[in-house]
Amino acid sequence: MDGPRWLDEREDRAWRGYRRMRRLLDLELARELMQDAGLSEPDYDVLSDLSETPDQRLRLSELADRMLWSRSRLSHHLTRMQQRGLVIREECPSDGRGSVIALTPAGRQAIEAAAPGHVDAVRRHLIDLLTPEEVAALGALTHRVVDHLTGGQQTSPSEA
Hints:
Elements: H1 9-37, H2 41-51, E1 57-59, H3 60-67, H4 71-83, E2 87-92, E3 95-103, H5 105-125, H6 132-150
Helix pairs in contact: 1-5, 2-5
């Protein structure tokens, strides 16, 4: 029986650097999003996913799949967003048991107000630090890993 294939020094440096970068980047983007727009990352994800659909509606189950959350967890989060007037739940016309989540005018306004600052933060903390070649390499490697982990089944148009 073969033992584990330990990471060599170069691989370990890359892996640890990636993990540290991801944590720090996620923390900073979340902090700025909350400070500037009063939205959490999950709020932003829900609002942006809904805003990118033609009718600004998604089945709860599809939204949960896109966010990689359980339906129960998402349902609880959506209740809080509903209380803030950002989304509403509607009955699914084709399935009485399912629900559809729709963006409200306040939700549309919130995502439109938050998006410019969020994109600016993504640029400042990641994109503008890279050369065009590094951006292309980052896109290629992230899509390769996502394709591997999803079996080629991307769950969100924004991931394509």
